[in-house]
Structure formats: structure tokens, C-alpha cells
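sry for the spam today, last one i promise. C-alpha cells for design, 321 residues
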């Protein structure tokens, strides 16, 4: 049974690069269906992509996360190859990414970016990537070497069990967390990363997008690890309560008086708030466990990629040989 491969290319004002991108993936995976999802481009992206032979669709809600949500919901395939439409990813690596996913029955293979071109991968983004990757490893126990890569191959069961909540460029972080949280089998392959073609302009903002990604990690941490998240808050509140309360206790032991009543009330209030945070974490931890079980069941409702009954057609790989 031939594996159906869909190539998903989210685009916003990429008329200078989309034809090259489509042609590259067409040569690498000749039998794959290429979808270009335009996100309110003001240039000729739609016309150029259609002329290049891609199936062009539109998502009006601005933001890459909104586009990915639409792509994952609408496109039906067995294997999904997602890349950007700016010709920065090496399409010739796509067959190797797909074959790795099938051979090892993985749910996601990440194209980890490797480049020596500063213009392709700015130092600020490199440092931010390393910082966020380390933080993710601390929060969830494992991570990827490049959590912000937009070049990924997914199984059907990943795509159809992934509830996309992000709206912008933080979508890659959410994808990584989804895989880590459900303990999915995943892999990485190093891939060249190129500078944009002349006339193509990056839509990334180092500080704005970095802040949004950091906020996403904290939010996901609160949602996925509520006991530890609220436990930390409880610990800080209780430490403050001790700082205010211990001098009062010492004074009381010597004089049997409480000379600073407002401070005593504050210490008591902080202790109560700390206890409330602990119980909040315990309750939410139970809720999260139930929600995680539901997500796992939705994930298991789809068959694993690869196996003896579903192999990629070697003819589809000819272009990548």
C-alpha cells in the first residue's frame, strides 16, 4: 500500500522564494502532494505558487500557528512534511527524513539546522534557541537540539492528535512540547540551512518572538506541570511568611507580646496563600493526568507509521537519491 505524503508550506509574502521551494520538494518527492497555505500575502505568492504546480489554499487568521492549525485539520495524508516557503531548507533531505520516520516508526523527525552563514541563522536566534532548548530539557526531561526548526516530518497520528493552540511563531515550541509530553518516539537529522533568496525578507522579530516563545513555555509549564509550578509559588510565599513571622515568634517567646500585629496578619495571610497554591497544584495535577490520558488515547486511535503493510513507494524517493 503506497504511503500518501503531503508537503505543507505555510507562506506569507514569499513570491521571491516559493517557486524554488515547490520545485525543490517536487524533485525530492515526485509523488507527494504539495500544499501552499497563503496567510494574507500582499505580493504574488498565490499566483507564483499555483503556477509552480502547488495546491494553494488560504488562511485568513494571521500567524503561523493559525496556518498550521488549518493545514493539520484539512489535509489528509499518512506522512506530513512541513517546511517554510522561503527556500531556506534543503528539500533533498526530505526523503531521508521520511524514510527515517518509516523505518523506526517515529512520530516526528526534526530537521536540525546546520549553517555557517550568519545571514541565514543570526547569532541572537542561535543563542535564544540554545537557551530555550535547555529550559525545555529542564522542564520536560528531554529536548531537541533545534526546537525552533520549521522543517519537520510528522506521522498521521501526531498531526491528528495535536490540538494546536498557538497563533504565531511559537508553534514550533508547542509542537516540541506535545511530542515530549506524550513521550512520542522522535528523531533528528542534521540539515543544511540556507540564506533567503534575494528579495525574500524574514518575518521574524528576535525580541518579540522570543518573548512570545518564553511566555508559551511558561504557560505550557503551568498547564503540564501544575503541581511543581504552583509548588514553587507556594514555597516562595511560605519563605516570605517565615521571614516576616520568625522575628515575631522570637519576640513573643521572650515577651509574650505581639508588637507588630499587621506583620503577624501578613505572615498568616502568606501562609494561607501558600497552602492554597499547594492544593491548587494537587487538584490541577489530577485534572492534567486525566487530560493527558485522553490525549494519549486520541493519539493511539491512529496506526503507527511504517511497518510491513505500509512502506514508502521507492519511486517517490527517486528524486532524493
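last one done:
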Amino acid at each position: 500500500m503506497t504511503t500518501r505524503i503531503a508537503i505543507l508550506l505555510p507562506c506569507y509574502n514569499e513570491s521571491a522564494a516559493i517557486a524554488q521551494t515547490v520545485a525543490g520538494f517536487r524533485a525530492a518527492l515526485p509523488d507527494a502532494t504539495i500544499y501552499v497555505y497563503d496567510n494574507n500575502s500582499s505580493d504574488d505568492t498565490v499566483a507564483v505558487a499555483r503556477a509552480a504546480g502547488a495546491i494553494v489554499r488560504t488562511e485568513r487568521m494571521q500567524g503561523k500557528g493559525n496556518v498550521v492549525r488549518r493545514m493539520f485539520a484539512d489535509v489528509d495524508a499518512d506522512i506530513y512534511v512541513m517546511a517554510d516557503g522561503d527556500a531556506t531548507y534543503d528539500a533533498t533531505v526530505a526523503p531521508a527524513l521520511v524514510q527515517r520516520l518509516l523505518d523506526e516508526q517515529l512520530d516526528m523527525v526534526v530537521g536540525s539546522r546546520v549553517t555557517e552563514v550568519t545571514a541565514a541563522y543570526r547569532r541572537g536566534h542561535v543563542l535564544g534557541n540554545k537557551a530555550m532548548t535547555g529550559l525545555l530539557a529542564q522542564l520536560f526531561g528531554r529536548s531537541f537540539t533545534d526546537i525552533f526548526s520549521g522543517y519537520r516530518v510528522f506521522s498521521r497520528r501526531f498531526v491528528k492528535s495535536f490540538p494546536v493552540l498557538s497563533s504565531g511563531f511559537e508553534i514550533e515550541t508547542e509542537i516540541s512540547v506535545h511530542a515530549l509530553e506524550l513521550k512520542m518516539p522522535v528523531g533528528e537529522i542534521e540539515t543544511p540551512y540556507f540564506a533567503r533568496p534575494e528579495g525574500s525578507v524574514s518575518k521574524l522579530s528576535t525580541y518579540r518572538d522570543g518573548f512570545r516563545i518564553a511566555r508559551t513555555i511558561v504557560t505550557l509549564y503551568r498547564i503540564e506541570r501544575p503541581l511543581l509550578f504552583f509548588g514553587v509559588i507556594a514555597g516562595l510565599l511560605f519563605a516570605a511568611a517565615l521571614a516576616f513571622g520568625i522575628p515575631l515568634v522570637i519576640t513573643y517567646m521572650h515577651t509574650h507580646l505581639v508588637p507588630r500585629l499587621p506583620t503577624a496578619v501578613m505572615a498568616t495571610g502568606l501562609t494561607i496563600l501558600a497552602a492554597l497554591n499547594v492544593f491548587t497544584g494537587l487538584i490541577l495535577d489530577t485534572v492534567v493526568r486525566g487530560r493527558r490520558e485522553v490525549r494519549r488515547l486520541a493519539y493511539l486511535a491512529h496506526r503507527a507509521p511504517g511497518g510491513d503493510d505500509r512502506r514508502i513507494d521507492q519511486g517517490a524517493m527517486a528524486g532524493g537519491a
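The mean pLDDT is 85. ok im logging off now
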